[in-house]
Amino acid sequence: MNRKVPNILDYEAVIFDLDGTLIDSMGMWGEIDIEYLERFGIEVPENLQRELEGLRFTEVAEYFRERFGISDSIEEIGQTWIDMAEYKYRHDIPLKPGARELIGKMAENGVRMAIASSNHLRLIEEILRIHGISEYFDVITTCDDVTASKPEPDVYLYTAEKLGTSPSSCLVFEDIPIGILSGKRAGMTVAAVYDTYSENVREQKEREADFFIQDYYELLG
Question: What pTM did the predictor assign?
């Protein structure tokens, strides 16, 4: 059962995961997998995206190179994905409902904001620029900045350190269970955000997070 939604302004800092949390983009990565592997005549295996959850951007490239026998270098694979993702970000990917309004409210009330994502820094910066919200984020970190990826707490602890804020004063928004676990292990309050990609694990998300929201409008009342 969903726990009571707290007052967003009770927190010194709010940290967002990116894909599936702040932007509605999880389906995009599945499309990129299909389009990319088609270039090599390879069909996407079932549940590939699940196997990639929590991996750093470079780790995913390494995984593709080894599993599918792709001759391109890690750097070449990554650059191809960046180019494909940038195009989709510019044309197809919206913010999650209510995200812009919530960001504005927090900014007006002095709540510091950060991004902590497994995505590539260049892509994070690009999608924030596209939606005109770059100025609101004090810190952007990726799992490449730390030793261990999600579900380990490293990226969230590092982000809190960069913000100059204690973990217990931070609220995390996440969309998948390993991200929720990462935030909880960091000692932060974690909100699970609805996403169609993770609909099949909704009950797990509701159980493991401190509270669950269907969209960010719920926090604007």
Answer: 0.87
Here the tokens at position 59 are 């780790």
What Rg value do the Cα atoms of the chain yield, rounded?
17
User: DSSP character for 100?
Assistant: H
Cα separation, 103 vs 72, whole angstroms: 40
Name which of 206, 179, 185 is nearest 21 in CA terms.
179
Which class for 159: exposed (0-12), middle (13-18), buried (19 or more C-beta within 10 A)? buried
CATH topology of domain 8-24+95-219: Rossmann fold (3.40.50)
Contact 28, 92 (CB under 8 A): yes
Q: How far is CA 195 from CA 95, 185, 198, in A?
A: 12, 22, 6
Q: Is 158 helix (H, G, I), strand (E, B) or coil?
A: helix
Q: Are 17 and 205 in contact (CB under 8 A)?
A: no
Please answer whether residues 140 and 121 qualify as being in contact, where contact means their C-beta atoms are separated by less than 8 angstroms: yes
**Cis before residue 45, ω within 30 degrees of 0?**
no
- Note the pLDDT tens digit of each residue in 81-116: 999 988 888 888 999 999 999 999 999 999 999 999
Non-local CB neighbours of 110 within 8 Å, separated by 6+ positions: none
